[in-house]
């Protein structure tokens, strides 16, 4: 019985410590309202619905986006591309399939993530229906993808 009591106390300490080391408190950074962030990200994402923004760990965020063209068949045939086709100049060194994701990540970076010292933003894209909703592509953008000037931020006319 004493072992159970010690284990319970240890679990309580670990749980309390995890609350202290929780993700950065965005309220202390005077965040922009989530409605404003969502509206801006949706403007950048265009026809692809932005479903969620998740802040996790000490320095990471994930933006979840839905793409009806992401189907098992398109992925298996290597024909799926997130976002519209881009020219080499628009991509500016970014793989074409990651350009729209990078634009979305950079929008979040400018709006909020830079202020709370986020080091990585992940854009997760999944399908819209059936099993395609369970299939996803994670695109990782580190600080150098987010902070540096990038010609791809310019939207084509």
Describe the structure.
- By secondary structure, the protein is an alpha+beta fold.
- The protein has one domain (24-153).
- It has helices at 2-20, 34-45, 72-76, 88-91, 99-113, 143-147; strands at 50-56, 60-66, 120-126, 136-142.
- Helix 2 packs antiparallel against helix 5.
- It starts with a helix and ends in a 10-residue tail after the last helix.
- The model is unreliable at 10-31 (pLDDT under 50).
Q: Give the overall form.
A: globular
Number of strands: 4
Distance between the termini: 72 Å
Count of distinct structural domains:
1
User: What gyration radius follows from the Cα positions, in whole Å?
Assistant: 19 Å
Main sheet characteristics: 4 strands, mixed
User: How helix-rich are the residues, as a percent range?
Assistant: 25-40%
Spans of 5+ residues with little confidence (pLDDT < 50)?
10-31
pLDDT averaged over residues:
80
H-E string: HHEEHHHEEH
**Which class best fits the helix and strand makeup?**
alpha+beta
The count of helical stretches stands at 6
Q: Approximately how much beta-strand content do the residues carry?
A: 15-25%
For the largest beta sheet, what order do the strands appear in spatially? 1-2-3-4
């Amino acid at each position: 019985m004493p072992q159970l009591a010690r284990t319970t106390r240890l679990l309580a300490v670990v749980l309390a410590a995890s609350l202290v080391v929780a993700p950065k408190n965005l309220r202390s950074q005077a965040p922009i309202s989530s409605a404003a962030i969502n509206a801006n990200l949706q403007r950048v994402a265009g026809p692809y619905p932005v479903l969620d923004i998740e802040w996790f760990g000490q320095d990471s965020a994930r933006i979840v986006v839905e793409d009806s063209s992401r189907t098992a068949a398109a992925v298996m045939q290597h024909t799926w591309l997130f976002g519209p086709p881009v020219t080499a100049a628009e991509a500016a060194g970014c793989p074409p399939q990651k350009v729209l994701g990078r634009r979305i990540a950079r929008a979040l970076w400018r709006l909020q993530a830079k202020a709370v010292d986020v080091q990585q933003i992940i854009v997760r894209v999944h399908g819209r229906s059936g099993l395609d909703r369970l299939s996803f592509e994670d695109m990782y953008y580190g600080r150098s993808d987010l902070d540096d000037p990038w010609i791809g931020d310019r939207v084509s006319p």
